[in-house]
Design brief:
Blueprint lengths: L10 H19 L3 H21 L8 E3 L19 E3 L4 E4 L4 E3 L5 E4 L12 E5 L3 E8 L3 E4 L5 E11 L3 E4 L7 E4 L3 E5 L6 E4 L2 E3 L5 E4 L9 E4 L3 E4 L2 E4 L4 E4 L3 E3 L3 E4 L5 E3 L3 E2 L5 E4 L5 E3 L12 E3 L2 E5 L3 E3 L6 E3 L4 E5 L10 E3 L2 E3 L7 E3 L2
Parallel strand pairs: 1-5, 2-6, 5-7, 6-8, 7-9, 8-10, 9-11, 9-12, 10-13, 11-14, 12-15, 13-16, 14-17, 15-18, 16-19, 17-20, 18-21, 19-22, 20-23, 21-24, 22-25, 24-26, 25-27, 26-29, 27-30, 28-31, 29-32, 30-33
Antiparallel strand pairs: 1-3, 3-4
Length: 364
């Protein structure tokens, strides 16, 4: 079972894929030809086993982008990176190098595997249909866009990012995203790359977590610059992921829950309801530049750990007891425009736990 949303090839299929990758790496790195040949023989034997015994045990299928060849074209293995059009008639490669039509039940991979170091290559894929897919994996630097108002619906496997730079929507694109189930978007780039989702995101009643792997030593960044319709759902962060929420955010009874050591920049305007909540846990800082957003959380702002950083004059005045410092490790940091300049912060509703001291620290 894969760690990525419970989806992936069986152990036997992973072994086949590993043999293929070993062959390609042997060719690229100049390893002895016998090593690459041995891996290729393993792959041939695996194909024979597939023909005889079938492919049972696959948690879900995988499809690889290969230049966006339309129906009737010929694709070759390994997958070829390149610009192209993605619609319901686009051909993909499966894990065995066989051409197949796009299937929404599959995960789609852009790039067969991550490249070492930083790559300057950039590719653009234009969507020309409303598409539904189990998940997307960005091994190379791809941008998904659309010139029409198409919707990309994402399933339980969510988004994974291993490249230097990738994006979904934004920059004038009309593409939007809808969540078909609760999921995680992971930035696991080995080069601390930035993953940007500029498309408007409709949570559709499902929860979304922005996170990275527990063992990743690099701090990763995920930027949500499109509008977010959270509604009654939960947007959360986890582990070391730094997040930027720069688009408008709509809540009703939903929650924004910030966890882990990663920091969050909230610059978009939040509109909420009487039951909307902001929770801050973990050592990371929450920096708020659009301070009107702090009044959108009708059920309160709960600060358990880390810092709430205010960079402008701020007034939090509704409802009563709106800002709750629930432990001594939560602090308030006020950034001044210039050294010695006064900054006015009004917390109309302030609730401190018993025997807790509120620490207010100027950061310049």
């Amino acid at each position: 079972m894969s760690a990525n949303g419970g989806c992936g090839p069986s152990k036997e299929q992973e072994g086949s894929r590993a043999g293929v990758l070993l062959t390609h790496r042997a060719l690229r790195q100049g390893l002895p030809a016998t090593l690459g040949a041995a891996a290729q023989i393993c792959r041939i034997l695996w194909f024979a086993a597939v023909l005889i015994f079938g492919t049972h045990g696959t948690a879900c299928a995988q499809q690889y982008w290969s230049g966006g060849t339309l129906s009737g074209g010929t694709l070759s293995y390994p997958p070829i990176d390149g610009n192209g059009v993605w619609n319901l008639n686009t051909d993909f490669l499966d894990i065995y190098g066989v051409t197949s039509k796009f299937s929404g039940a599959d995960r789609v991979f852009f790039g067969e595997s991550p490249l070492p170091g930083i790559s300057q290559d950039r590719y653009i894929i234009t969507l020309e249909d409303n598409l539904e897919v189990l998940g997307l994996v960005f091994n190379r630097n791809y941008s998904l866009t659309s010139t029409s108002a198409y919707v990309l619906t994402l399933g339980a496997s969510g988004l994974e990012f291993y490249a230097d730079e990738a994006s979904v929507g934004g920059s004038g694109s009309l593409l939007s995203v809808k969540l078909a189930s609760s999921q995680t978007w992971r930035n696991q780039s080995a080069t601390a790359g930035i993953f940007t989702i500029g498309a408007a995101v409709d949570f559709n009643g499902n929860n979304l977590t922005l996170g990275d792997s527990d063992f990743d030593s690099l701090v990763s960044s995920i930027v949500l610059s499109g509008s977010l319709t959270i509604g009654n759902a939960v947007l959360s962060t986890a582990n070391k992921t730094n997040s930027v929420l720069s688009g408008s955010i709509s809540l009703s009874t939903g929650t924004i829950s910030l966890n882990g050591s990663g920091s969050t920049l909230l610059s978009g305007l939040v509109t909420g309801g009487p039951l909307a909540t902001l929770e801050k846990q973990g050592s990371g800082a929450l920096t708020v530049t659009n301070v009107a957003s702090l009044n959108a959380f009708g059920a309160g702002i709960m600060l358990k750990e880390g810092s709430l950083v205010l960079v402008t004059d701020t007034s939090v005045d509704a409802p009563a007891a709106n800002v709750n410092f629930t432990s001594a490790s939560a602090t308030l940091a006020v950034t001044r425009a210039a050294t010695g300049q006064n900054r006015t912060v009004t917390l109309g509703g302030l609730n401190l736990e018993t025997s807790q001291d509120l620490t207010v620290s100027p950061s310049n």
